Amino acid sequence: MKQPRVYQLIVALTLAAAIILTEGQVKAATNNQNTVAATDSSSLTTAPQQNGSSATASLTSSSSNPIHVYSAATKDVATAQAQTNQAKQAVQQAANQLTSAETIKNNAQTKLNDLKNQQVNLIDGSQITLTSKQKNEITNDWSVLNEGPASGTSFVDNQTNDKNTVIDTNNLTQAQAANLSAYAASLINNLRGQLNYSALNNQQTATSDYLNTSLIVTSGAINFAKQVAANYNSDHWNGYAKGNHDVPAIQKAAAINGLDQGGNYYEDMESFSNSFTTKMTVYAAKQYLYNAIYDMLFNDASESYAHAHSLLGLDITAAEGISAEYFAVSFDQYGNIHLELIKPDYVIDQTKFTANFDTTPLTTNQSQISIAQNALDVANKNYANALTKYNSAKQQLEDAQNALTTAQSKHNKNGQYYEDGHWYLYQNNVKQTGFQYIANQHKTVYYNNNGQMLYGQQYLNGHWYLFDTVTGSMKTGFQYIANQHKTVYYNNNGQMLYGQQYLNGHW
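Given the sequence above, the corresponding C-alpha cells read:
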C-alpha cells in the first residue's frame, strides 16, 4: 500500500537521525580512546571497484578491541626503546671499564716482565741449583747440602765490560757496591725461590712455618756493609787467620744505624787468604761472591749450617712477620767478603734508623716481583670480571633490541584509525591516500594527500564526487544536493555526469 508523503518524510528523518547518532557514538568513543582501529589489512583493497554504502563504521567492544591493542603496543614500543637505550649506555660503560681494566692488566704484566728480566740480567746466567731432595728435605736433614748442588750450577758473566773494568773492592763507589750487591742478592733470592715451602712446612709445627723472604738492596744496607768493612780494616781483622767474625766491628755499625748491638745478628762472611788483593775486575769480584755463596751453602757442616740457614732464609719463620731483609755486600783489605742481611725487627732506635738507613730499593728483588705478581693477579681478576660484565651487557642489549623489534612489529598499524579528528587508513604503518575500498563496510572512500578521509562534494582529478558527510562513503546514482537545491547523477565510479544520459532504460 502506498504510504502518504508525510509518513515517508518521517521515516527518512528517523533513519537520518539514526545514522547521525551512530556516527556520534563512534566519535564519542574515539574521543575517549584517542585512536581507533576498525579493520584489519585483509579487508583492504585499492579501488574504486564497486558501489559503496552509507553504512557507518562499527565499533566493537571486547578484550581484543584494536583500540586497546594499539595503545598497549605503543606503550610497549616506548618501554622497549627506553630499555634498549639503557642497554646501549650499559654496554658503552662496560666497554670503557673493560678497556681500562685491560690497560691496567697490560701495564701490570709489562711491569712484572721488566722486573723479572732485570733480575735475570743481574745474574747474567750464573746459577746455583738445589737438588730435588734439598728443596724438599733440607730442614729435616741439613746434611743433604753436603751432597753438593744439582746440575746446571755454574758461574757465568757474559758482560764484556765486567772483564775489562778494574775496581778497588776496598773502596767501592756506591754504584759499584749496588751492582755487586744486586748480583749476590739475585743469586740468593733465586735459591730461596727454589725451596718447596709446602713440603718444608709439613715438617714443622704450625707456628714455625717458613716463607719465601727476599733480599732487598738499599743505600742504607750498602752504607752499613761499608761501615762493617771499614771497622774490620781499623781492627786489622783477618778472618782467614782468626777464624771468626769481628763482632765489635759489626756492633759499631749497628749502633750508628739504630740496630740491636747484642752480637752478630747480621753478617755471613767468607774469608780468603792473605794473598787476596783488592784490585780486581768486576768479573773477578762477582766470581768471588759466587764462590763465597756456594761455599757457605755446600761446605758449611763445620758451622752447623748456620750460614746456609741465613742465606736460604730458613732462620726466619712466618711467626716473625718478616717478608724481606735489607742486603748489601762489601770487601775489606784483609780478604774478608761481607754479606750483610739486616732484618727490620732488629731496629731498636727508630729515629736513628730512619735518619741513617735508607730503605728505598735500588734494584729488583723478589719482594718487588711478588708485589708485581699480586698486582697482576688482581688486574687479571678485574679484567675477567669486566669482560664478564661486558659480555652480559652485550647480551642484555641484544635481548632489548629483540624485544624492541618484537614490540615494533606488534605496533604496526593496519586498518582505519581515528586520530586528531580525522579518519586515516594505514597499511603497515603507512597512511593510504586516494580512493580506497573498505571491504567489511562495503564502501569506497577517499583520503587526501595527508591521508585524511574527505566528505561531501569533492573535485578530484577533473571530476566531481560526492561523499557521505557522516561515513565518507562515495555516492553513486541520483543524489539530491540540498544546499544547491539540485539532483545530480554519479556513475559507478562516483563521477558526476552531464548532458543527456541513458540510465536504467530511460533518457
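The longest strand covers residues 324-331. Try to locate this feature in the C-alpha cell string yourself.
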